[in-house]
Amino acid sequence: MINTVDTLPAFPWLSLMVFLPLSGALLCLLHTRSERDCRWLGLTVAVATFGIAIWLFLSQQPNASGWFCVEDIEWIGRFSIRYNLAMDGIALVMVLLTTFLQIVSMLLAWPVRRHVGLFFALLLILESGLLGIFLAQDLILFYLFWEVALIPMFFLIGIWGHNRRHEAALKFFLYTLAGSLFMLLAIIGLYVIHGDQTGHYSFLISDLARTELTLRQEYLLFGGFLAAFAIKSPLVPFHTWLPDALSEAPAVGSLDLTGLLIKTGVYGLIRIAFPLFPNATSECLPIFGTFALVALFHAGWCAYHQDDIKRLLAYSSISHLGLVVLGLAAWTFTAWQGSLLLMVSHGITTGALLAMVAMIRQRIATRNLQKLSGLWAQAPCLSALFLLFALASLGLPGLANFSGEILVLIGTFQTRPIWAIMGIAGVVFAAAYMLRLIQRVLWGEPTQAEVADLSPREWLILIPLAILTVWLGIYPATFLKPLETPVLLALGGLP
Amino acid sequence: MSSTTGSLPTTAPILFEDYLALGIYVGIALFLVAILLLLSWGLGHRTRSRIKNEPYESGVYPTDNARLKGPVPFYLVAIFFILFDIEVIFVASWAVAYDRLGWAGFGQVSFFTLVLLVGLLHLWKTGALDWGPSAARQNRKNQDIP
Amino acid sequence: MDNNLVQIALQNVNMWAIMPSLILICFGMGLLLINVFLPRGTTKHAVWISLIGLVVTGLFVFKGWGDPQYGFNDAVALDNFAAFFNITFLVAAGLTILMSDEYLRREGYPVSEYYPLVLFTTAGAMWMASGTDMMTIFLGLEVMSVGLYVLAGFFRNQVRSNEAGLKYFLLGAFSTGFLLYGIALIYGVTGSTRLTEIGIYLNAHTSLLGNPMTLAGLVLIAIGFLFKIAVVPFHMWTPDVYEGAPTPITAFMSAGPKAAAFASFLRIMEYCFFSLKPEWTAMLWVLAVLTMVVGNVIAITQTNIKRMLAYSSIAHAGYALVGMVAANEIGYSGILFYMLAYAFMNIGAFAVLVLAGKKGEDNLTLEGFSGFGYKRPFLGVAMTIFLFSLMGLPPTAGFAGKFYIFAGAVKAGYLWLAVIGVLNSAVSLYYYLRVMVYMYFRDPLEDYAWVSMPVSVVVSIVIAIAGSLYLGIVPGFVMELAKLAVF
User: Is residue C159 part of a domain?
Assistant: First the structure.
């Protein structure tokens, strides 16, 4: 086990981490004149935030209940809403993923030409929102960051997106916000029930988890939270917004969307929905598992039939998320670790693939599989990296996704062998559509006379991603270790 | 059912008898109106002709437009009269009890009169009291309002 | 005349209870006098004097906080409840006056009588909030309404403005008739116009509660106020009046007088008819749902932004009514908070419209807003904040307000009402977002050169932004005040 400490740091590192990007965003908005400054400002802030995250990762030891840092002050006394940020192992891993991918996003956003200051400001606001989601322990604070993370994505899709961007942005926003409004209602409902019961009103997750609920209440409130999380994740059958949003979003937007934003849904399930409503959860687990399997197959099938690479990757994300939820539904230590690891590795591999799609599109001006062909002959370095990420995404042993997937499947086998067997069949689907992608893009006759290979900026984006992909495949223990205590605690909550 | 103490008649439930007198009254009123109308309709002399429909049965034909244009100042003065005249009632109600109301009452009625005075001044200066075309035209010339 | 009666009447005067509105009236009258001695068309002084008047009044309102003053035989009360609402009115009036001068000049009506009228209207609203007698409330309502009739029809050469003024006047007079009839019936039943006395009397004589006269009185009084609040099905006048009236007046009407009507309505319902709570909450439940649904659904189809905001203000009245249905401490104080929040965000949105509109305001359509956010970054950001606040997204005032009110509803057990409210918020997202879609996702139009940025309007927008964000990010203090303000 990890060594534990008695006292946590007094300096508000978490607040600094959350609000650093936001202040950077304000600077960007005030200083839209100079595009160059905005780019460098965005990158600097992203690197600094990542630096804080790494520093916390390396220097901090968790206390006995698994927290690395805790900040807690009163915010709105009238409703006993608290400004409570805290970081445990799960949050730490998500924070690392977020801050890292934001650096990649900044670099990837370098060629943006229209409204540069606004673009980088929105990216930074998004980062603040995401970090807040992963760290907030008070439900109202959580809801606040939940919406804050939503708004920049709406603009990113709507302003810099492709042809059908207006509809995609509206669909994305209405869909996810409608879901989160139900979560708000459930939050209020739970707050009132808890307060009436104990006489002590609170929005803290740890307090609310102690509420005595009837099964009917649990189901109603659980449904409210599920509406938000299932749409965001997105679980089948609430997944239809993702392919549209993803294919219309600009490169950076789609990277953040798949890499980070949809992870918040699963994170919410783990962090909020499951611990607050243990009885409803344990009764719903078979349903989750079933829908996860449906997602795995349905999305895999859809992915196989897509010609637009981005839509293919969108369905592949839904399929991967299905596997993540399958692991959660299995409710074993190994499967949960696998699920969380798979979230991270999916964020990195799919993020990398989306970045590469953007690079290819800059060169060949298409994302259509029917029109792409024979890239290997012209741009070998680009193609090699594309192959690496695609293979990682289909779950080749030794690369990122494999370690997560195998843990999920082993863990699931312990309690639900049938699910595990079907899950393996689902993974084969992934191999099918990924191989089709590789075959169409890399092999065959070249379509264009000349295609430039990777530029230094693109090397800078892809090399860290490639290193992480291999690292996660060979030595995932680095990331599994901080997950141990929180996962054990979370699973202990089930009767 | 009605309360035996009789202290509060309003607490008693509404009875039919309470409204009986009202009902009879309304009935008689309607009856009278109906009778009068019916009588005049039945006994009256009726003729139907074109001349009957003219405004003046005497045969004088109406000339000119029915809409007469009156100068606006008439209306204005009429309205001002109503405004300021009604306020006299308030002053009168103070006047009958001025000795008992004392200085406080005097202060209040003074404030009230002051409000009226401000209103009058405003009317005066905006030219609402000016009479005659020359003054109005002069006024309009000074205003740059469309 | 009975000597004692006169003495009692004089002892109970207590000028402190009406001091804020008295000061406002004095400023209005003084301004009226000054106006006539200055050449026509000079208006700057009027803006300054009105603002000073509002600030001085505000100081006296603050003085009354925590130290309730009752006067005129308890016909007027300057308690925390009234003080909180008074602040709302003063904020609304101040923001309105700040944006008016430029607007009136552009539309060709630089008339200084406008400002005293706004002040008188505000004073009327303040009487409504502090009236604890049917007659004082009625007096306040009339003072407020008469001023508003004139202001709505202020552009006397514009047909739309005339229509607005006349429509507002006729329907307002009609609703006043209802109200007065209701007051008469209640007086007939209880023998009093004093709110507390009516309440005590009705509570003591439970057999009166089922009396048709009482119920008719209750319903007629409610209708009188529901007209002013523009609750469906008494909302028909709102879109036309809001569209036709001068934009600053529309902004003011949607925040100030609406809050005033809510204030008296709340007081009457809680003081007089608390014994009939199950009845009137059931009635308002239906009306709240209708108001939210109709307001939001019709707003979706609007292409004129001013009209869209008019319908959305109907929907917002519906949200606030939810707080009345809840009829508990959280719901009531939620209304207080919501009205203040709404004053900031809605008047802010209208202030942006004031700057964005051309003479005649034909360009305030969705198409006319294409690419507005790029050509006018400040106005774009401001409008974005106001729209997010109107949608009810954190961290803005609108979210805090909606949260407050829905918390009250859930606390009172009206879960389904809260669900309907939340669904309606989801519907409202669509039409607010569409403005943003046009502002940011479309290419700019060529002719944005006409947008000038006068300081006074910018100040009002900045204040509105500050208010919207302050009430959203750190609402704790104002929420505490709202809690202290309800009975």
Answer: no
Q: Are A341 and A480 in contact (CB under 8 A)?
A: yes
Residue-range domain boundaries for chain B: 9-46, 72-142
Going by C-alpha positions, the residue among C323, C468, C345 that lies closest to residue C403 is C323
Residues composing chain A: 495
Comparing alpha-carbon positions, the chain C residue that sits nearest to A181 is C422
Per the CB < 8 A criterion, the answer to whether A154 and A113 are in contact is: no
| CA gyration radius, chain B | 30
pLDDT tier for residue C349 given thresholds of 50, 70 and 90:
very high
> By residue range, what is the domain housing residue C313?
276-487
What is the rounded CA–CA span in Å between residue A323 and residue A423?
A: 7
Of C380, C368, C381, nearest to C447 by C-alpha is C368
Higher pLDDT pick, B45 / C467: C467
What does the block give as tokens for C47? 């803006």
Please identify which residue in the block is written with the tokens 């200051």. A117
d(CA A365, CA A493): 51
Neighbours of chain C (3+ CB pairs under 8 A): A, B
Question: Angle CA(A185)–CA(A188)–CA(A190) in degrees, nearest 5?
Answer: 105
- Does C have 3 or more CB contacts under 8 Å with A? yes
Tell me, yes or no, whether C414 lies in a domain: yes
- Burial class of C418 by CB neighbour count within 10 A (0 to 12, 13 to 18, 19+): buried
> CB of C390 within 8 Å of any CB in chain A?
no
Q: How buried is B11 (Cβ within 10 angstroms: 0-12 exposed, 13-18 middle, 19+ buried)?
A: middle
CB contact under 8 A, B118 and C40: no
Q: How far apart are CA B122 and CA B129, in angstroms?
A: 10
Q: Which residue of C has its CA nearest to A143?
A: C394
Domain housing A351: 285-495
**Residue A32 burial (CB < 10 Å; 0-12/13-18/19+)?**
middle
CB B84 within 8 A of CB B92: no
User: Hey, is A81 helix, strand or coil?
Assistant: strand
Look at chain C and report how many structural domains it folds into.
1
Contacts of C164 (CB under 8 A, 6+ apart): C152, C153, C240, C241, C242, C243, C244, C245
pLDDT for B7: 41
With residue C77 as reference, give the H or E element that holds it.
strand C76-78
Pick the CATH number of B72-142 from 1.20.58.1610, 3.30.1360.40, 1.10.10.200, 2.40.50.1070: 1.20.58.1610
Convert the pLDDT of each residue in C365-395 to its tens digit.
888 888 888 888 889 999 999 999 999 998 8
φ/ψ of A379, rounded to 5, equals -130, 80
Chain C residue with minimal CA distance to B97?
C1
At A89-146, the pLDDT tens digits run 899 999 999 999 999 999 999 888 888 889 999 999 999 999 999 999 999 999 999 9
> Is the pLDDT score of B39 beyond 90?
yes
Q: Does residue A330 lie in a domain region?
A: yes
On whether residue C222 sits in a domain, the answer given is no
- In the numeric block, the tokens 């970054």 are attached to C377
CA distance C117 to A296: 67
Question: From the DSSP assignment, how many helices (H) and strands (E) are in chain A?
Answer: 21, 2
How far apart are the C-alpha atoms of A148 and A132, rounded to whole Å?
9
Cross-chain CB nearest to C422 (options A75, A76, A185): A185
Domains held by chain A: number:
1
Residues 6+ apart with CB under 8 A from C102: C354, C355, C452, C454, C456, C457
Q: pTM to 2 decimals?
A: 0.89
pLDDT score of C9 more than 70: no
CA distance C20 to C59: 8
Q: Which residue has the higher pLDDT, C28 or A428?
A: C28
Query: Considering only CB atoms, which chain C residues are within 8 Å of B141?
Result: none
pLDDT of C230 above 50: yes
